[in-house]
Amino acid sequence: MLVGCRFERLSLSAAWLALAGFSRRGAAVSARGAKENLNVGTIGHVDHGKTTLTAAITRVLSTKGKTKFVKFEEIDKAKEEQKRGITINIAHVGYESSLRRYAHTDCPGHSDFIKNMICGATQMDVAILVIAATDGVMAQTKEHVLLAKQVGVSNIVVFVNKIDLVDDDVATLVEIEARELLEQHGYKDESVVVVKGSALKALHDDDEECIEKLISALDAIPLPKRLQDEPFLMPVASRVSITGRGTVIVGTIEQGKLKKGDKIEIKGEGECLNSVASDIQVFKKSVAEVSCSNFDFSLVLVTAGKIKPCMICCGG
User: Fold this and answer.
1) Which of these, 23, 163, 256, 274, could form a disulfide with 232 (CB 3.0-4.6 Å)?
2) Is 135 a known active-site residue?
3) Over the stretch 265-297, which tens digit does the pLDDT of each residue have?
């Protein structure tokens, strides 16, 4: 028997899906289920350009009619993030290529926010390791690769950023250094794709080719096996409180499926909540069912207490 649980119901307003940064175009695609889904994310040392690259990807794909351009300041939108110029909380962005739909998690690089990075990495099928050519492999580069391996990220694509600021020889040395690091942690060299470019230039229309190469590399990553027949499990990636209503929780389903009316439990941090899924929304659409094989980020509103990132939402 679970002690200290409260019984509540779930509901969700479509407006809150904007928290995940998805476009209306993405909603139509998800409803048809016409494209494969892959969960990706940016990891790496602080100030190496993870958020800039995330924004650049959406800008380049927006010119092809594939997604909505999400500006840098819309990703790092918290006041503290803008004040300090670094990512603190994980951020979610959706976009699509000609072959796949992507749910993208932008992780913080600063060592003070490593727990947030771990929460983001647990949602990824593949990680984009961003390394600034001006610095090379740094402390959080190494730590993020180690953590990615430990939480089960099976594929990493390397983006060597800021190559416009160094000679070609330096960029090549950074690539070699990155490959050696990944091989040390069990990522086979022949399977690692390295893309070089300038995320800042791509963001300002000057270097679209590097983004196109990056997307091609992501499109070629084999899809992971989805555990659709296992019990429902979704780590809480982030949350936003709504006065008078409760807390919106955002997460990527790791296994199983969830239907409207299903009982759920949210556990962790010494807390336990029993609830019922009265509504589920993905890509700005209310859906009857969501599973690990169909969708990426799911948003649920719970009228409940102390929900924190890295708690677990599971079948009740």
Assistant:
1) 256
2) no
3) 888 878 887 777 766 767 666 778 877 755 455
